[in-house]
């Protein structure tokens, strides 16, 4: 009996390991590009895939700006990243994407202190109800509007430093997203959600905004030396679900442990989009598992993307 139990346990662990290596882990970024003399911004880089992305970029010699909302968490990550990479070219700068004023003051400080910007990685994301400082729905405000304003304010510098890239970290959840312009025009929130399903819907909506933003941005960048990409990083064992109930976290633990990527694996598609040579003709497209993927019609609808752009400009005071 004991032998059967032992053999079963070995079989289950081996099967989980093989499944993880073959199915979960996914492809890796194979670019050997070095980044000495290049400057990059990674938003939300104090934890999760933002941090592992920043570590990889710093190891390649880049000057990496950790754009994080918490001074304490940002500075702790800065120390970790310096230790792991041995780089003295990593800098923390405070950026709260849930505050239009914070975004503007981040950009002002960045443009004053840094002469270059080669790659902007809009990675930060939140899965939480509530409102931003400006009264926008938290997920719409941080995941979309915050990055929309940040990108627009940094565009001139990116153009001056071309060839340069903008990477928008979206999610496969964008497939379930909807853009309710009536709701946005009246409440600015794209809904906030109260039930589990509503909150998931609002998150998915914000991730659809990331894909549509990238689609429209690529059009507006035609004729410049700047390209942009959106992506799904995979299902990752990160801190993203930290604001969900402890029951949900406990319930999901076995799934996230065995079936989700770790954060190094989860950063590979961001790195691919940021570094892979020869993908410039794919500007505006969506990637998953280091591969360009088709999106549904609603995620590349020209009229919706343009309307979302114009609404976003109004909501963040660009027009
Ligand atoms: N995890 C997944 O399975 C998964 C799947 C698909 C897509 N994604 C996307 O991948 C990206 C990274 O997520 P992750 O899994 O690495 O999550 P994570 O571990 O929770 O990291 C998210 C990062 O975003 C930052 N952030 C949140 N709100 C912010 C704000 N207002 N201003 C500035 N930074 C803010 C967080 O800062 P604090 O630490 O201060 O909160 C943190 O550094 C997100 O865009 C997410 O939507 C994740």
Automatic annotation (TrEMBL):
Gene Ontology MF terms in the entry: oxidoreductase activity
Pfam families in the cross-refs: adh_short
Extent of the signal sequence: 1-16
UniProt keywords, alphabetically: Oxidoreductase, Signal
Coiled coil: none
Family: Belongs to the short-chain dehydrogenases/reductases (SDR) family.
PANTHER family, per database record: DEHYDROGENASE_REDUCTASE (SDR FAMILY) MEMBER 13-LIKE 1, PHOSPHATIDYLINOSITOL-GLYCAN BIOSYNTHESIS CLASS F PROTEIN-RELATED
Name the UniProt record assigns to this protein: Dehydrogenase/reductase SDR family member 13-like
Gene name of the encoded protein: dhrs13b.1
């Amino acid at each position: 009996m004991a032998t059967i139990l032992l053999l079963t346990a070995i079989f289950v662990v081996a099967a989980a390991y093989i499944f993880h290596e073959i199915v979960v882990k996914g492809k890796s970024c194979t670019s050997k590009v070095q980044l000495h003399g290049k400057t990059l911004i990674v938003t939300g880089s104090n934890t999760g895939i933002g941090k592992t992305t920043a570590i990889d970029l710093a190891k390649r010699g880049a000057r990496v700006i950790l754009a994080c909302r918490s001074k304490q968490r940002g500075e702790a990550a800065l120390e970790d990243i310096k230790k792991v990479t041995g780089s003295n070219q990593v800098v923390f700068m405070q950026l709260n994407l849930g505050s239009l004023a914070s975004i503007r003051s981040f950009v002002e400080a960045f443009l004053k202190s840094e002469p270059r910007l080669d790659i902007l990685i809009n990675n930060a994301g939140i899965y939480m109800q509530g409102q931003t400082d400006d009264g926008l729905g938290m997920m719409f405000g941080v995941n979309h509007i915050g990055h929309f304003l940040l990108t627009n304010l940094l565009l001139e510098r990116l153009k001056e430093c071309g060839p340069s890239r903008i990477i928008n970290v979206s999610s496969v959840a964008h497939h379930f997203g909807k853009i309710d312009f009536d709701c946005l025009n009246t409440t600015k929130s794209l809904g906030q959600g109260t039930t589990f399903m509503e909150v998931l819907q609002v998150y998915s909506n914000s991730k659809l905004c990331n894909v549509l933003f990238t689609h429209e941005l690529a059009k507006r960048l035609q004729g410049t030396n700047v390209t942009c990409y959106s992506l799904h990083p995979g299902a990752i064992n990160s801190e993203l679900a930290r604001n969900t109930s402890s029951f949900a976290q406990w319930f999901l633990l076995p799934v996230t442990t065995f079936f989700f990527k770790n954060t190094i694996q989860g950063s590979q598609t961001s790195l691919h989009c940021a570094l892979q040579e020869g993908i410039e003709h794919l500007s505006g497209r969506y990637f998953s598992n280091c591969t360009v993927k088709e999106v549904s019609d609603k995620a590349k609808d020209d009229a919706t993307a343009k309307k979302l752009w114009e609404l976003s400009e109004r909501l963040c005071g660009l027009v």
